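QA checklist item 7 of 12: single-chain prediction sanity check.
[x] sequence parsed
[x] length recorded as 317
[x] structure emitted
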Amino acid sequence: MRKNQWIPWFLILLVWMPVFGKTVNIKKVGEYPNFVALSPDGKTAYVTSYGTGELIEVDLTRKIVTRAVAIGVAPLGITLADTGKTAYVACKESGTIAVVNLETFRVAADIKVGGSPNAVAADVRGYRLYVTNFGRTKEGLLHIIDARDYRVITTMKMGISPIALAVSPTTESLYVVNGGLNEVWVVDPNRQAVVKKIPVGDTPDGIAVTPNGERLFVANSRSNDLSVIDAKLGDVMLTIPVGKMPFGVAVSPDGQQVFVVNTQSRNVSILPTNLSSLQAKTVSVERGPVGIQVAPDGQTIVVVNEQSHSLSVVDIR
């Protein structure tokens, strides 16, 4: 560039133009999709399609659906293990956990648990699975499963409507959301015992834990707020108003931000996990957002829109 060469002002603006909130919507992702898991490289999304009983693969680079496989009736929660090579999906009306080989994209096994399983998580090493189950009676259930031989190790009684769970990355404690009791139960999986019950807001639905295991965030769909829990003390330290009918929750890989899906508001609230600000930023998505994940690089969020049958990929830089 020659000395003192003039640079057009609009080129400078293009360089500095913020991309926060830029959204790409991927259409026709099954029927009534609910939850999503991301591959370790963040290039692929795996979405449960409640209406079609399928697991849907979405290429996030090309923004298209690439594969689908039938896995069971009314699939809901999903988690990945085996370095992202295997998906475990809770199929509510089949009473099974579908084990999907993500390389061949075929069902490798079905783990029978009965009742109405709805959410699934894996331990840090991927050796054990934890499944919440609405059950067939008033009380719900928690299944602990050996992920190596698909054997149900034990089944524990939970409260009313256990709907979500999270695993501490540091202590391996389980946190089970009992939506019908307005409580989060802390479970020691080794002792197979409930060690604490934490009251939260009205009708909790979603939960996430920070990477350091120090804080939990619980979305309360009827009271329209977010309960912030000190994991060490096992107590709610703060309750923050968010949008209408908050449901899914996710924390960024660096532990700096928490994202709350507001189903009726059709947006996502974004807050710092250190609570330095209680004024949430929001980004809009499509109708009926439910599930959410943050990309491994922390630059985008992927939101499942149940009523729009779509994914929203939102830039959060």
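[x] summary fact logged: The first helix runs from residue 9 to 16.
[ ] second reviewer sign-off
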